[in-house]
Amino acid sequence: MAQYKAPLRDIRFLLEEVFDYPHTIATFEAFRDFDLDTVMAMVEQVGDFAANEMLPLNKSGDAAGIQLDPATHTVTTPAGYKELYRAFVEQGLVSLTQPAEFGGTGAPHCLNTVLGEIQTSCNLAFALAPGLSHGAMEALEHHAAPALRDVYLPKLVSGEWMATMCLTEPQCGTDLGLISTKAQAEGDHWKLTGTKIWITWGEHDLTENIIHLVLGRLPDAPAGIKGISLFLVPKILPDGTRNAITCGGLEHKMGIHASPTCVMNMEGAHAWLVGEPHKGMRGMFTMMNAARLMVGVQGLGAAEFAYQTALRFAKERRQSRSLNPARREAGQAADVILVHPDVRRMLLNIKASNEGLRALAYWTAINTDLSRSHPDERARQGAADLVALLTPLAKSYLTERGFDNISDAMQVCGGSGYTRDWDIEQTMRDERIAMIYEGTNHIQAIDLVGRKLGEDHGRLYHVFGEKISLFLKKNSANSALTDFALPLSKVFGRLNEATQLLATQGQPDPEFADAVASNYLNLFSLTAIAYLWCLQVKAALGQTDAFHLTKVKTARYFFDCILPETATLSALIRAGKGNMMDFAVEEF
Amino acid sequence: MAQYKAPLRDIRFLLEEVFDYPHTIATFEAFRDFDLDTVMAMVEQVGDFAANEMLPLNKSGDAAGIQLDPATHTVTTPAGYKELYRAFVEQGLVSLTQPAEFGGTGAPHCLNTVLGEIQTSCNLAFALAPGLSHGAMEALEHHAAPALRDVYLPKLVSGEWMATMCLTEPQCGTDLGLISTKAQAEGDHWKLTGTKIWITWGEHDLTENIIHLVLGRLPDAPAGIKGISLFLVPKILPDGTRNAITCGGLEHKMGIHASPTCVMNMEGAHAWLVGEPHKGMRGMFTMMNAARLMVGVQGLGAAEFAYQTALRFAKERRQSRSLNPARREAGQAADVILVHPDVRRMLLNIKASNEGLRALAYWTAINTDLSRSHPDERARQGAADLVALLTPLAKSYLTERGFDNISDAMQVCGGSGYTRDWDIEQTMRDERIAMIYEGTNHIQAIDLVGRKLGEDHGRLYHVFGEKISLFLKKNSANSALTDFALPLSKVFGRLNEATQLLATQGQPDPEFADAVASNYLNLFSLTAIAYLWCLQVKAALGQTDAFHLTKVKTARYFFDCILPETATLSALIRAGKGNMMDFAVEEF
């Protein structure tokens, strides 16, 4: 019943006309094999693969779930998942953006975002597995000693092995300073002992070996976050013996049932240090930034699937006559519900916000490549600043809005949407975790407000603000843009005002900053998306084909019917922490 | 693991100090046995019953689900549910508000709302079953011929039998005019043939007999909604034989797994007409109005359970130190997360909105009793007007806000909230249907905008507006109230402006009205709740005990940090239908 079609036209539009991929990334020496047509051919192929191979196992995987044999600590994935993983590897999807020197294809990183959305739309639980490997490969590439790296990286790139990230412990999730997993020296390596929880794809039968990247403490480690080191802990040791890291239990979750979420016990597990002692958070952040963007993309992918499903329903289902006699279909007792304004309102809320979310994800992704591969150093730095600033927005706003959009899509489908028949209920259950893992959405807001805004006297914010100011200045005479530039200018003013408030009130009072951070992140995201809609309009205006005409209409809808949300966000930021700190514990 | 405590203090406050139960309802002849202390003793007893008997079966019922034997069409409920139903009957909860002449206890109807919240907090799937019986009893009491009524009503009141409401057919949910179930005359009764879907508790093993109230058409029925009649179709006929109405299948849903949602097939089922031919919607509306308030209460009950759970988590879980050194607990590596502003923000958003939702539900419920039992006819009419106006708000806003609150509660609990261990995930899955069934939330908005607003030149709106104007006028000199009365006055202005816009633009253009109806309903709800918060503040001000002091603080939080949502709602209503009707089908 479930169907999916990759949004190829929108993808091409964003890459080609909005973010100018052909004249930037495609011209870089490293990416000369990846011109736009080549990339789009890959996207189309992956779209077919996701729709035909990944999606059919999405619902069956949810129903079957994951089985753990407590005696042997082995974990069995749903029927077909091993074969699906092999096919995924054969599609070249694991090695795609890895460097050629380790056996990778060397494609631009932005493809992870483009293809990640497609994969997530079709099977989130499965897509998580290679996604984690991807983050681990990044960490090994940048932080592991060559001897260690060369043993593990090629086999991860080839997909023969997979990897995990082991951060959380029972006493610490958000606050990693509380980590207590301990290392003891033994020869050239370490013995790790501790318990990790919430380990996604921590144990499974898709590959023979699993490479765990684990946060722990060396014997002489300082307390807190500055005493954390990163270790590599393989399930199977190079000599073929089983390492002392085992799955001690599975979480029973609302969704992503086909994805094992494991308790991992280490009892003197053989481990190697990755990077410098006590500097483990560095390697972990390398993994986390890419991972955070990918989690944001999960919100978008799920919302896109929900949209397509709800739209299909709205085109088929007949209930009530159109309120406008001119729209009534002859010979029918009722019209398709797509004629009803409220159904359109819900669908356009999803469509217009999804297309904005996609632009935000792509902007972040494109800047990742610019920050790494642009020949000009200043351009690299500016792009890196944008990535640093946009990553928390992408992770948080895409997952939060994505969830709301899924709920709206369910509402379009009425009772059908609540049943397993239409798959949206699974999408809702699966996607909800994205607001929590990889740093809760409020952790993203703290990252934005407490770290990114203050960096180097506001340099990052300045880079962002300059983009908007420049656009407004350059296009002030373009009357065709006025309907879009004017509200952009207004919301940018709101953001500036809120940023100023954070500087004057949040600086001296961290509780003020924490209280408004989540609303500020949303205001920031909507401002960024309004800017990106302006870029889309500018690219589309004057073109008379159906796609571009619809783009401008969708932009208009966004500015009229979504952007006004910023009125409330501004008011809430002005309200600050209100009286929320005045409540005693027993008053709650 | 799951725990629950009925919010007794808030319940008493609302009944006694805000809605003046002791000097209104308790003084009516019919309710002289139900003074406030008696009522509160009942509430406390039901709170204990719900926490100790209903809640423990909530999670096990979700896991076990419902079994259908297709050969015999029998449906088996989860372990313990038969015993639970018997205990529920013994608590007097089925007969509570039924008239004494049919074996009922004759309690005020508002108790259904008070106790309904408690039951829903603890076990929604189960609570649905007696809830449906209740609606059916109302319909039989008011519409069935005495001969028919006297056979069925006493056995429903005693709880020996249960009832259902059978409306939806595969081709019609929202649009009941499309109903095609057909009746053929046979002697003094009818033979019904057709298929009904989404029938909640349509078949089960809790009682021997099940009394179905079914919408269908007589042979001479006019087309559409004006040709629908209401029939009574028992599972077991008076002579003890099995009637030709059977369960043909169960829906597989996201939640309420312990509640069977049935396809019901009738093949010449023996049926009796309830009320007049072709006037079936009347009887159905009698059932639906009470049922709609009860569905709203489901949203509140679920959100209250989620709040209590998240609060328990936030008091136990330690992560990070407080941002304010003065709040740091000595001898701890981290503080309980309740000290963090963002956690407080989420919890207060839930607490302050839940207490507003409860006040809205009670206002509707109290007016139900006033409309039926007040000695003064004008008072009865005014109360009936309020019930008519408030019912769509209660159904839609409580379920929508309730769902958002559950999602916030999950966010407070982080990863734990996503697992089955903390029960919120089930609450989210269970509650989501409340936005859909009993008329989708948009149907409520249409009811408000298209029917209730226009009734008798706006009489209902006038009754509502007078309450607010009078309050503002009476209290204009009370400076202690200014912080609350001023924003009330402002939001009332916004609502008046929106209502005016609906009159001028929505009247001539039904598509405009439909496009803004849902946002208008939310603006209306927040206005009503702001008024009710003012009543709460007025009752609490000047009292120095902890409960009343916290009430005023919570009110302040509502006005500062929730009511600003109306800024966006106003802007969206002004945006009207925007360009949403300009999109061709293929542009979506």
Strand content of chain A: 5-15%
Determine the N-to-C terminus distance of chain A.
46 Å
- Gyration radius of chain A (Cα, Å) is 24 Å
- The CATH topology assignment of the domain at 8-157 in chain A is Butyryl-Coa Dehydrogenase, subunit A, domain 1
What percentage of residues of chain A falls in helices of 4 or more residues?
55-70%
Average pLDDT figure of chain A: 96
CATH superfamily of the domain at 8-157 in chain A: Acyl-CoA dehydrogenase/oxidase, N-terminal domain
Strand elements of chain A, count: 9
SSE-based structural type of chain A: alpha+beta
CATH top level assignment of the domain at 8-157 in chain A: Mainly Alpha
Overall 3D form of chain A = globular
Largest interface: A-B, 89 and 89 residues
Oligomer: homodimer
Q: How many individual helices of chain A?
A: 17
Task: Kindly list the characteristics that best describe this protein.
homodimer, 588 residues, alpha+beta, Butyryl-Coa Dehydrogenase, subunit A, domain 1, Butyryl-CoA Dehydrogenase, subunit A, domain 2, 7-stranded mixed sheet, two-stranded antiparallel ribbon, 10% strand
Describe the fold and architecture.
The structure is a homodimer of 588-residue chains. Chain A is of the alpha+beta class and 588 residues long. Among the domains of chain A are: 8-157, Acyl-CoA dehydrogenase/oxidase, N-terminal domain (Butyryl-Coa Dehydrogenase, subunit A, domain 1), CATH 1.10.540; 163-278, Butyryl-CoA Dehydrogenase, subunit A, domain 2; 440-579. In chain A, 55% of the residues lie in helices and 10% in strands. Chain A contains 17 helices and 9 strands. In chain A, strands 3, 4, 5, 6, 7, 8 and 9 form a 7-stranded mixed sheet that branches. A two-stranded antiparallel sheet of chain A has the order 1-2. At the A-B interface, α8, α9, α10, α11 and α12 of A face α8, α9, α10, α11 and α12 of B.
